[in-house]
Amino acid sequence: MSAPVEFAVWAPVPERVRLQVDGAVHDMRRGDDGWWRAEVEAGPEADYGFLLGDDDTPRPDPRSRRQPDGVHGLSRRFDPAAHSWGDGAWTGRPLAGGVVYEMHVGTFTPEGTLDAAIDRLDHLVDLGVDFVELLPVNGFDGTHNWGYDGVLWYAVQESYGGPAAYQRFVDACHQRGLGVIQDVVYNHLGPSGNYLPLFMPVFSEGGPNPWGSSVNLSGPDSDEVRRYVLDNALMWLRDMHVDGLRLDAVHALVDERATHVLEEMAQEVDRLSVAEGRPLTLIAESDLNDPHLVTPRAANGKGIHAQWSDDFHHAVFATLTGEASGYYADFAEAGLSGVAKTLTGAFFHDGSWSSFRRRHHGRPVDTSRLPGWKFLGYLQDHDQIGNRAVGDRVSATLSPGLLAVGATIVLTSPFTPMLFMGEEWGASTPWQFFTSHTDPEIGRATAVGRKAEFAEHGWDADEVPDPQDPETFTRSKLDWSELDREPHATVLAVHRRLLALRREHPELVDADLAAMEVGWDDEDRVLVVHRGSLRVVANLSDEEQEIELDRPATGVLFATADEPASSGTSVTVPAESAAVLTT
């Protein structure tokens, strides 16, 4: 049933804006603030768009909640309050002590939809994780994409099921005790279907970042652009009941204001958290290694609640695999001392020389003030797999034994652990870079650029998958039949037991970095991590190793292979294995 509806759009760029609703065109009135408004009769699911200037082609609403025909088509009205929520008992949960599971909707299941993902949530509950982190689901061009090429930040990608399916997914997670973290991108927009510059000065004049033009956060006419970002963050948390946001590459947010947009976002999210009566979390990805990002505002920080720790990943990955190219060089040279440094201080580059950057990088973490849970630790994530030439997981390189050692180091660390989908069973499927740009030129340029990038590093261009080839996307889907087959079943059992240990032994979730003690021997490739009265021992070598402890081991809580034999303060640990001991 139609009713009077006010349509509004901020569009200071065009001299004229008209509104098209269900085929009928209406004039809009411009206010002094650059907002255009018109009140017309419209149904609850009316299709609409805006005609800018003398162009008679309707463009989608920059704040569109639904794009049934893709990002080039008309917008459709969507009422987020129409969903009948079943998560009334959900009061949220803090990030501290939790475990995050990173998931890409399109490749998590064969169907690649949010509704299909619901059917796999019980697996995550049985696994023992606490949060599901979805890669970006905002509207992008085509049917499949990583999500970082989004152009309509307020819409949920229709091929995933659209916004109603998204609400069903969040509801289903909450009813199972799982929190939801949504990955969002505010540092750039995708190359195809981005009509925002026709409406507003969305880009700054300060030049591009690595992925495109920078968003106008502090230049002329940036107030409403900034509001566009902040309102989007609040929308996910308020209207979609999301529990947290992962903020992509915040080092690429160019903001010259006295109050950085991240600080402003943290302040508004904290206010919303009070109003909603549940914890709301902001997690940043940053290449700066600057602890001020996660320092509370009361202590003159930006107040973001947590951030990814790529240094921890690089240290563990390089030590396990032996890779030493590119940014892994410093970590491979440091060996286990680099793992120890990150376990006790989160950052490896804390003001030290970075050979990859050819400069000094980062600053130290004040471990007496910042707890380890503020840093996410992981052995794999979407970037560290998908940005490899062939998208190969660490399971393609490491033995099942070393996979288990890596899992033990991550899941007993003082950080907030994160797993990438399928990691828990050592999935054999790759996770490759895939796109489905409908513009032939953009698609061709993406494929050529991808192959050329890796050809510069010695790869045969024919070995690098074509991101526009549908098979690249299909190959990246998880194979759920692997769970009951070896070695996958054993790897899965290791992850389940480690996650259970975290719940059973508070010492394994202790986030006090200042209390961390780590011993290592690079020659024997052994590591000992003190977790209160527990000792985590890891033997990365292909030979049995005798490890000396600071006090006798009294029992074995967990072992990835045969239990270590102990005699006094000495324990003998099998090759490529790890264990958690009581002392």
TrEMBL record:
Pathway: Glycan biosynthesis; trehalose biosynthesis. Residues 47-78, 564-583 are annotated as: Disordered. Residues 56-69 have a biased composition (Basic and acidic residues). Its EC number is 3.2.1.141. InterPro entries: DUF3459, GH, GH13_cat_dom, Ig-like_fold, Ig_E-set, Trehalose_TreZ, Trehalose_TreZ_E-set_sf. Keywords: Carbohydrate metabolism, Cytoplasm, Glycosidase, Hydrolase. Substrate binds at residues 246-251, 310-314, 382-387. The keyword Nucleotidyltransferase does not apply. It comes from the Bacteria. This is Malto-oligosyltrehalose trehalohydrolase. It comes from Geodermatophilus amargosae. The lineage of its organism: Bacteria, Bacillati, Actinomycetota, Actinomycetes, Geodermatophilales.
